Structures are given as C-alpha cells and as structure tokens.
Amino acid sequence: MATSNPRIFDTDKRIRLGIWGLGRGMSFYSTCALLNVDVVAGCDYNEHMRSNFLQANPGAFVSADAEAFLAQDMDAVLLATFCPAHAGDAIRCLNAGKHVLSEVTAFHTLAEGVRLVEAVERSGKVYNLAENYPFTAANMYLARKWKEGLFGELMYAEYEYVHECRSLAYTYIDGLPVQPGNTVHNWRSWLQFHYYCTHSLGPIMIITGERPTRVVALPARPSLAGYLLGNEEGMGGIAPSLINMSNGAVVRNLMGATTNDTHIQRLWGTLGSAELNVGRELTLRLGGSGGSPKLEVRPRWDDLGELAAKTGHGGGDFWMVYFFARQILTGEPAPFEIFAACDVTIPGILAYRSSTEGGTPYTVPDFRQPEARAAWREDHWAQQHFDPNAVFPVTCDAGITQHFSATMAALIRYSTAYRAYADWERVASDLARPAELLPIVENLANQYHDLLTTYALARRIVAACPGTDGARVLAEMLALGGEAVATTPAFRTALLARRDALKAEYAHG
Ligand SMILES: NC(=O)c1ccc[n+]([C@@H]2O[C@H](COP(=O)([O-])OP(=O)(O)OC[C@H]3O[C@@H](n4cnc5c(N)ncnc54)[C@H](O)[C@@H]3O)[C@@H](O)[C@H]2O)c1
C-alpha cells in the first residue's frame, strides 16, 4: 500500500457526509479524507464552532438549524450532538434518508432504544455507534488472539473509564466557557456516570464476542467537590456495576470521576489473562495457571492500523469511520451496528436504575427479539435532573452570574493547583525524587496572580447568590483551593520563597 495516498476501498464511490455537532464531531476530519468520505455540511448551535468548521472546510454548508442541515444533499450524518439526545436526533436523520454514525451512547431510555431499532429497520439505512475504545492497537490485538483461542473462555474482566472531567460541566469541549455564562453544560453538568458505560463495556464485548445479559449496581454516595449534583444523581463520583456476559462470566464495568483517572483493563480467561495499562501497555500471563509466566508484549497493527494510529484516540476514531464507510460501500456489517449498540448502551441505563433501587439485578433485554422490545417499548425511566439553563434563579443579578461558567472553569484550575501544592508539601520529605516537587510549586506560583483574581470573583458571586447551587459549587472549590490560607500575603511570600529555594537546589540538576 502506498503511504502517501492509500486507496482503502476498491471503489471510486464517495459518501457525502454532514456533521451534526461540531465539538467532538470535528475530530473526524483527517480520517474522512482517507475513507471516500467528503464532508459537505455541518450543523451546530455554537457560532464559534460553525466558524471553525468552515475554516477547516471552506465551501461546505453550515447552519445552526437542523432542518436546513438535514435538507442538504448528503448520504450520511456523523451525529455528535448532546449525549442524551442521540436517539431522537438519529431518528430524525434516518427519517430524512441518511445513514447514521452516532456518537455514544445510542439512547437514554429503553423506550427510545426500541424506537431507534425500529427506525433503523424501517429506513433500511446503515446505523453504527461510534464506540471507539475497542479499536486501539492493544484491544484489537487482544480480540485477534481471543478469536484464536489463546485465552480460552472469559471468566472475569475489569474494564474501566475513570475520567474526572469536572471542568466540562462548565465549558464546551474546546475549553470555552458555556454561554450564557449563568448556564452550565447541557448534559455533562448532570448525567450520572453509569450512563456513559460504553468505553469500558465496548472493548470487552468486541474482544470476547460475548454480550451482556444481566446487570447489578450498588449506590456509591461520596462525590468530588464542584459538581452540581451528588454522585447518586450526577457525574462527580464512582459508578461500578457488575455484568453477567452471555457465557456466564462476570465483568466489573467501572466508570466515574475520582482523584485518579485510569484506564486499567484486566481480563482473565480459562487459559490465560491480560492486563492493559498496569504500568505497561500490555502484559499477558500465559500457561493456564495463576503463576504462569507473565511477559510484556507489543501489540502489532497491520498496514491499515499504522494509518489509523496517526488519527485520534489511538486509532479508534479512524476505525469508526472505516467500518461505517465500509458498511455503506460494501454492505459488510460494522462491529457496532444497531443491536450491538443496544447491547452496549442498555447496561448503563439499567445499572443506574439498579443503583437507585439499592441493587436490584436487571436482565439486559436483547432487542434483536421483538418480544424483548415489546416488553420495554413504554419504559421511559430516566434520571431526574435540573434544567442546565436555570441553575440560578431569575432573582439573581445576571450582571454578576453571567461570569459563573468562566469563573468556575478557572477556579477548578487554580484550586486544584493550590491543592496539589498544599498536599504534596505534606509528603515532601518522603518523595523518591524530591526535584519533582519543583514543577508543582512553579505551577502555582506562575498562576498565583490569576488565582487571586478568580477567587475574588468567585467570592463575589457566592455573596450575591447565597443558597443557590451555583454558589455552593463555587464555595466547594474555594474550600478545596484553601481560600482562607491561599489569599494571605504571608502565603504568597512563603510560596515564592519555597519556589526559589527548590529552584536553587534542583533547577539545574
Ligand atoms: N468517543 C469519544 O471518545 C468521545 C469523546 C468526546 C465526546 N463524545 C461524544 O460526542 C458527543 C458530543 O460531545 P461533545 O464533547 O462535542 O460535547 P457537546 O455535547 O457539548 O457537543 C454537542 C454539540 O452539538 C451541538 N448541538 C446539539 N444539539 C444540536 C442541535 N439540535 N442543533 C444544532 N447543534 C446542536 C451543540 O451546540 C454542541 O456544540 C457526546 O455524545 C459525547 O458523548 C465521544
């Protein structure tokens, strides 16, 4: 295969693609160009995203109006709108005669899932879920070796997507604060983490070929500071569930926000086991016993994989568009067609439901079966949440609250910089490599002026809107950020002296 301009599909047919949702949706450009896909239209409420899109795609149609977007002459839509809106938006696309590549997750309620399945069947169009985490080099390697029988049968696995993305409750994905400034992110401000179950469950499904059949979860109460909803109903804590797979194995599916982001993945088969991201990218234990030799391996790509690796998410984004285009152009089904999309989405909804009921186990319905769809057709159970556009009551002065989202985004940065400094100081004498303290201290010292300005603004909003959720999360972050200590002149003097002393000792070492 030529390296400069590879021909991936044996056809000159092109796919005219529109991208709906230009935040995450923008990640796929470089990939589209390689895969017979021409981006011809974009749609987003946000002006700055539309203008970025046009810059990358001069001549394309762009609009904030979904009707006008869907009326364009295009074959397919890459759907990257708000997470809980995907089913409704996908159905609109299918009804407009477009193939759909939907971002995760596929739907928010089981009733929506039934509607989506039936809309796909009615339309005759291709529907794929863009679940990308199974398609890293390591996960694809494991899938190949699993099929060859290297690991035997699945006994147990622990896959996780632990990602503390607190600031994304207050900004768009590109880091700009949500507008208007007294509102919060449409869904990252409230969605309970169980719902976001596909990046951890997806890989184990693809590697082993098993589907989830039963799920149970216990409530986990403690939450991090700065989240508008507590963990039992929001995104600020840990969300573990246990899932039976179709061969009788158990998977611990772990999502959540904690003080340690990790993507550790471990699986145990009857013949061998594997660990990803535990110190090393991929380690296998082969030999059929607990004490068998454990060695590191280097997962290999094929030619196409090398190409994939140059695009986003460790290659995963490439494969999403590849499988989708391949299914449209050749009919070969993608790994996450509609029923696999249901299999990977439903356990999150039911896990959260289980946790709200103190741990009721749920059978995961198989929507390939019409009778399973009939049983859930009217099941609209969903998380209760606040209105992201009404976080502050109208009685609060909008002249002050308009600064909320920007202040909160900055406050998260500065208060965690303070907390890192303050807490690492407490174990400074135990550090294996004491020089590693220097960047932590410098980081706070360099931002100290902006920290003071942000703390003052946050305090002003708290004082102006007492008793509101906005005031509460600001106050939580001010406490985490040691407001009472950090804003004193003595603290500044000590901080700068500490930086200078560490610099003198380690800067050249
Ligand atoms: N697979 C991954 O690795 C990955 C990474 C990030 C995000 N995602 C998924 O991608 C989706 C989008 O995420 P995001 O990070 O861009 O965040 P987001 O939810 O902020 O983005 C949605 C974008 O769509 C626009 N939008 C929503 N509904 C619209 C409508 N009806 N008309 C016009 N514009 C509309 C919004 O203005 C916004 O810019 C989410 O569902 C998320 O779960 C997946």
Structural overview:
This protein starts with 14 loop residues before the first strand and ends with a helix. The mean pLDDT is 95. Among the domains are: 133-301 and 336-376, Dihydrodipicolinate Reductase, domain 2 (2-Layer Sandwich), CATH 3.30.360.10; 398-506. It contains 17 helices and 15 strands. Strand 5, helix 5 and strand 6 (127-129) form a beta-alpha-beta unit. It has a nine-stranded mixed sheet with strand order 14-13-12-11-7-10-9-8-15, covered by helices on one side. Strands 3-2-1-4-5-6 form a six-stranded parallel sheet, sandwiched between helices. The protein is globular. The protein is an alpha/beta fold. It binds nicotinamide-adenine-dinucleotide (NAD). Nicotinamide-adenine-dinucleotide binds at residues 21-24, 43-46, 49, 64, 66, 80-83, 103-104, 130, 132, 172-173, 186, 313.
Q: What can be said about the biggest beta sheet?
A: 9 strands, mixed
Number of helices: 17
Number of strands: 15
Supply the CATH architecture of the domain at 133-301 and 336-376.
2-Layer Sandwich
Beta content comes to: 15-25%
Q: What share of residues is helical?
A: 40-55%
Weakly predicted, low-confidence segments: none
CATH C-level of the domain at 133-301 and 336-376: Alpha Beta
Mean pLDDT: 95
User: How would you name the CATH homologous superfamily of the domain at 133-301 and 336-376?
Assistant: Dihydrodipicolinate Reductase, domain 2
The radius of gyration is 24 Å
